[in-house]
Design a protein that fits this description.
By secondary structure, the protein is an all-beta fold. The chain has strands spanning 3-6, 12-17, 22-33, 38-42, 47-49, 55-60, 63-69. The protein has one domain.
């Protein structure tokens, strides 16, 4: 399986979460596998798979634009 690492032209960040917090990670590079799976390599060397993040954003024209969204944690309505 062929894999490529690419750097985005504009800054990219991803958001991950735990039941208590949402964490933002700046992205250094994107890894794209031949099956079109996208992984995110953060600036501190951590590799996150698409299925492990809430969403990704790219800084375009002075504002952060959401690229993808994945509903992982639902809040209680109590």
């Amino acid at each position: 399986m062929r894999t490529e690492f690419l750097q985005a032209l504009n800054p990219v960040r991803i958001h991950t979460s735990t039941p208590d917090n949402t964490i933002t990670h700046p992205v250094f590079a994107l890894r794209i596998a031949s099956d079109n799976q996208i992984d995110y390599l953060t600036i501190n060397g951590m590799l996150y798979r698409s299925c492990d993040i809430l969403f990704a954003e790219q800084f375009i024209n002075g504002e952060w634009t959401r690229l993808a969204y994945r509903e992982k944690y639902k809040t209680d309505s109590h």
